[in-house]
Every structure is written in structure tokens, then in C-alpha cells.
UniProtKB/TrEMBL annotation:
Keyword match Thylakoid: no
Taxonomic lineage of the native organism: Bacteria, Pseudomonadati, Pseudomonadota, Alphaproteobacteria, Rhodobacterales
Pfam family name, one: ABC_tran
PANTHER family linked: AMINO ACID IMPORT ATP-BINDING PROTEIN (PTHR43166), GLUTAMINE TRANSPORT ATP-BINDING PROTEIN GLNQ (PTHR43166:SF14)
Protein name: Glutamine transport ATP-binding protein GlnQ
Domain ABC transporter: 4-238
Family that this chain belongs to: Belongs to the ABC transporter superfamily.
Residues in coiled coil: none
Organism listed in the record: Pseudogemmobacter humi
Keywords: ATP-binding, Nucleotide-binding, Transport
Molecular functions (GO terms): ABC-type amino acid transporter activity; ATP binding; ATP hydrolysis activity
Family annotation (InterPro entries): AAA+_ATPase (IPR003593), ABC_ATPase_HisP-typ (IPR030679), ABC_transporter-like_ATP-bd (IPR003439), ABC_transporter-like_CS (IPR017871), MetN_ABC_transporter-like (IPR050086), P-loop_NTPase (IPR027417)
Length: 242
């Protein structure tokens, strides 16, 4: 069984079909890089995986549970699929440590002391132990995004979903975030990453997917697909991102 299975999955917003009968299976440990023009449905595809958007057709199974299940099962899926957004979405009034400790206290019912000692380890992992007691506004964008990654990891997800995690960052800050993501991939985390960082796709991705109009149009090995784009539209797209 694959950890994520799209079965003719569709998503409509009113009359607009944003995901069009997507079939896709993602195995544990894969690092899937998702690219495509603006509006092609990349964010929606990610958001359906953790139930932030409800699918309107077909089925979508995450770690054996259908996102259609609702209730407690949907909460379980949300826990298993951590999400990192372009805008870091940290709680502004909380310190880095409190941001990371929040989920485990709420979702896993840990005591404050337990949650905070785990949170400190996670901040260390993303290179921010020394910034634990700073609020987000006192951190750089790259540091905030690393806190957001630590926060997502804190509830022990099986899958990490990244939606253009470096798009809001200055070039010199992108790398520190990409390095944390590279480390996660090396540890075997299953990841689905929307990004236009093609060097990351080539070096870290195990699979590259090109989406157009809510459909998967290319699915292959990153280095091969980049070196030999199987469609003119992908070739044009790659020329514009690199
Ligand atoms: P991408 O991430 O590839 O740029 P999105 O998944 O964000 O694409 O959006 C795909 C399409 O769905 C776009 O046309 C967008 O305007 C539309 N869309 C996204 N979210 C909503 C929403 N909540 N309500 C209506 N339309 C939406
Ligand atoms: Mg998007």
C-alpha cells in the first residue's frame, strides 16, 4: 500500500475544476517535487492531502484512511501530514519554542515541560536552539520558516507537505531552509514539495511531477525529466524558472 493514493481525485470550486481526476500513488520515503504554472492546482493538491480542502470526486487515501472519512479520522490525517506554507503562519505572540510546543500539547496532550523539551530538540535540529525564546518578528524569514518546519515536525507526521516554502525569502535565506529540507529527505521523510528551486528538485527529489490544468502531465525522475523534457510546455516552463 502506498502512503498517499489519489484515485481519480477531483476538486471543484463551484464550476471551476481545479483537480481533474488525478491518479497518483506516493510511496514512503519518496521526495516528490511538484511544479507547474500558477493556477494549475499544486496548492490545492497539497491541501487535499491533509484535508484543508475537501475533494469533490474520486477518493484520496492517506496512510490507509480516506480523506472523506471526516471526524476523528480526518484529524488523524491532519496529524500525519504536516504542512509548511509560503507565508510562515507562525503564532505571532508566541516564542519559537511555544510555537513548536503548541501542537504536541494540544494534539498529543503532552505536559508543558515535555512538549517544551521536545520542542527544544527540534529547534536544535533546524539550527535555532539559540533563538528559542524569540518571537517570530525578531527572527529573519529563513529562521521563521525553519521554526515552521520544526512546528510541523513536532506532531510527528509521516508525510511533510511544503507549499513554495522559499518563495517569500531573499535568495541568501533560501538555502538555510532548503538545507533543513535536504536533511529531512536524507532521514527518509516522505515529502511532497511545491517549489521552483530546480537544483533542489534535481539533487533531493526522487520524482518530479509537472501539473497543468489540474492534471499530472509529466511524472518522472528529476534529472531525466529536466535534461530531456518530454513535452514542449515543460521545456518552456523550465526555461522560465531557471
Ligand atoms: P497553484 O498552487 O498551482 O498556483 P491553486 O491550487 O492555488 O494553484 O489554484 C488552482 C485554481 O483554483 C486557481 O484557478 C485558483 O484561482 C482556484 N482556487 C484556489 N483556491 C480557491 C478557492 N478557495 N476558491 C475558489 N477558487 C480557488
Ligand atoms: Mg500555489
Amino acid at each position: 500500500m502506498s502512503i498517499i493514493e489519489f484515485h481519480k481525485t477531483s476538486k471543484h470550486f463551484g464550476d471551476l475544476k481545479v483537480l481533474d481526476e488525478v491518479d497518483l500513488a506516493i510511496e514512503e520515503g519518496e521526495v516528490v517535487v511538484l511544479i507547474g504554472p500558477s493556477g494549475s492546482g499544486k496548492s490545492t493538491l497539497l491541501r487535499c492531502i491533509n484535508g484543508l480542502e475537501q475533494i469533490t470526486g474520486g477518493d484520496l487515501i492517506v496512510d490507509g484512511i480516506s480523506v472523506r472519512a471526516g471526524g476523528r479520522k480526518l484529524r488523524q490525517i491532519r496529524q500525519e501530514a504536516g504542512m509548511v506554507f509560503q507565508q510562515f503562519n507562525l503564532f505571532p505572540q508566541m516564542t519559537a519554542l511555544q510555537n513548536v510546543a503548541f501542537g504536541p500539547r494540544k494534539v498529543r496532550g503532552l505536559s508543558r515541560a515535555e512538549a517544551e523539551s521536545q520542542a527544544l530538540l527540534l529547534l536544535e535540529k533546524v539550527g535555532l536552539k539559540e533563538r528559542a525564546h524569540h518571537v517570530p518578528s525578531a527572527l529573519s524569514g529563513g529562521q521563521q520558516q525553519r521554526v515552521a518546519i520544526a512546528r510541523a515536525l513536532a506532531v510527528r507526521p509521516k508525510v511533510m507537505l511544503f507549499d513554495e516554502p522559499t518563495s517569500a525569502l531573499d535568495p541568501e535565506l533560501k538555502q538555510e531552509v532548503l538545507n533543513v529540507m535536504r536533511q529531512l529527505a536524507q532521514e527518509g521523510m516522505t515529502m511532497v514539495v511545491v517549489t521552483h528551486e530546480m537544483s533542489f528538485a534535481r539533487q533531493v527529489g526522487s520524482r518530479l511531477i509537472f501539473m497543468e490544468h489540474g492534471k499530472i502531465s509529466v511524472d518522472g525522475h528529476p534529472a531525466e525529466v529536466i535534461a530531456n523534457p518530454p513535452s514542449d510546455r515543460l521545456r518552456d516552463f523550465l526555461q522560465h524558472v531557471e
